[in-house]
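Example 3.2
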Amino acid sequence: MALNIKNQRVCDLAREAAERFNTTQVDVIERALQELLHSEEQRRAERYERIMAIVNEIHDSMTDEEREALRNVDREIYDEDGLPR
């Protein structure tokens, strides 16, 4: 599949990076996209871990009675399939 880039700045950057790393423009674009996707994956994983730490902290701070009260509210609001009543 062909990719036709009509942005001169992008073409110039690809050419410069290819020269600097002694490789092809396709290779530097592929590497840049892989790094971008990996970076985003890392960011999402770190965010998920932070959220789960907060959730666990809240859960640990609750009493059994408070947890049961929340479950009761859930049962009142949602049916057995998790859909709103």
